[in-house]
Amino acid sequence: MTLRIAEIFGPTIQGEGALIGEPTVFIRAGGCDYRCSWCDSLHAVESRYRHTWAPLSDVEIWDEVLRLSNGQPLTVSISGGNPAIQDFAPVIARGRAAGYRFACETQGSLARDWFAELDTLVLSPKPPSSGETVDWDAFDGCVSAGKPARQSVMKIVVFDETDYQWAKAAHARHPDLPLYLQPGNAEVDPDTPVDLRALAARLEWLTDTAMADGWFAPRILPQLHVLIWGNKRGV
Ligand SMILES: C[S@@+](CC[C@H](N)C(=O)[O-])C[C@H]1O[C@@H](n2cnc3c(N)ncnc32)[C@H](O)[C@@H]1O
Ligand SMILES: Nc1nc2[nH]cc(C(=O)O)c2c(=O)[nH]1
Ligand code: SF4
Ligand SMILES: [Mg+2]
After folding, report:
1. Which residues, in sequence order, are bridge partners of residue 178?
2. Residue with the nearest Cα to atom 2 of ligand 3?
3. What CA–CA distance (Å, rounded) separates 97 from 55?
4. What is the pTM for the complete model shown?
5. What is the mean pLDDT of residues 64-87?
6. Structure confidence at residue 205 (pLDDT)
7. Could you say which of 108, 139, 141, 206 is the most buried, measured as most Cβ atoms within 10 Å of its Cβ?
8. Are 128 and 156 in contact (CB under 8 A)?
9. Which of 31-35, 141-145, 189-193, 216-220 has the weakest average pLDDT?
10. How far is the CA of 77 from the centre of ligand 1 (A)?
11. Binding positions for substrate (predicted)?
């Protein structure tokens, strides 16, 4: 059994959400059932990049994580694409046996048994600006599958007022999931430098909007890796 892997990189810091700032190695799965208009990881989504995705066994994946982390247990972040398309249970089993922890980022469209083995399940339902429509039954299935995990959280990207209102409604569906909001990055081309002022302005708008609204449920965070490295890949 092999998995399609777009990239394995690190150690770096987790740039988003509940584990922001935590040292981590990323495993980025190839393939996604969504096509978000603003996706910052299209090299792991679109089939025109499929030839760059390596078919790797769980042993090969684990060897690379061990090499990058120098055998020192840390949190491994499984992202993509949608990693839930594939079976990461064997990779997680290897890592746990060696004392590593696991987080997974997924949009919540496909529930997997292995969510139960995670330390952190990050569910990131997509707001209207993405052009995708959330299947809430499927999402609820992911929440249930992740119940045995140490923690499950919700992370929503907000580009505009419509997304903001949508995020409030999404939180109302799952008030028990700790909520993280991050402003959307409108410029995701790896060859175009990010406009840090524009990023800061969107973060300011999102913060001001929530505070003026008296909505104190979410934690509001920038994408730390974008502040440091812009749209560079593999960081
Ligand atoms: C690239 S996705 C991969 C995992 C999974 N497919 C998902 O969307 O949750 C990882 C995270 O990056 C976020 N993201 C993608 N493009 C973004 C952008 N342009 N600005 C801000 N966050 C973005 C997604 O919403 C998700 O929370
Ligand atoms: N440093 C860093 N943090 C991240 N958090 C979520 C990421 C992702 O693309 O899933 C990501 C990423 O690509 N790099
Ligand atoms: S679900 Fe995630 S990986 Fe897939 S297109 Fe949307 S942001 Fe990109
Ligand atoms: Mg990313």
Report:
1. none
2. 81
3. 23
4. 0.98
5. 98
6. 98
7. 108
8. no
9. 189-193
10. 13
11. 13-15, 28, 79
106 CB within 6 A, ligand 2: no
170/50 Cα distance (integer angstroms): 33
DSSP string, 36-62: -TT-S-GGGTSGGGGGGSEEE-HHHHH
Tracing tokens 């799952």 back to the chain, one arrives at 174
Instruction: Give the pairing of strands 3-13 and 54-56.
Output: antiparallel
For residue 81, say if its preceding peptide bond is cis, omega within 30 degrees of 0: yes
Given a contact cutoff of 8 angstroms between Cβ atoms, the answer to whether 122 and 103 are in contact is yes
- CATH architecture of the domain formed by 3-229: Alpha-Beta Barrel (3.20)
Dump pLDDT digits (tens) for 4-46. Answer: 999 999 999 999 999 999 999 999 999 999 999 999 999 999 9
Rounded mean pLDDT of the chain? 98
* 45 closest CA partner among 11, 83, 13, 72: 83
Distance 46 CA to ligand 4 centre (A): 15
User: Which residues are CB-neighbours of 228 under 8 A, at least 6 positions away?
Assistant: 15, 235
Beta strands in 100-162 (DSSP E): 101-106, 120-123, 151-158
CA–centroid distance, residue 185 to ligand 2 (Å): 13
Q: Classify residue 151 by its DSSP letter.
A: E
Give me the torsion for CA of 234, 189, 35, 227, rounded to 10°. 60
Count of C-beta atoms within a 10 Å radius of residue 105:
25
- 40 CA closest ligand 2 atom index: 9
Tokens of 233: 């890949």
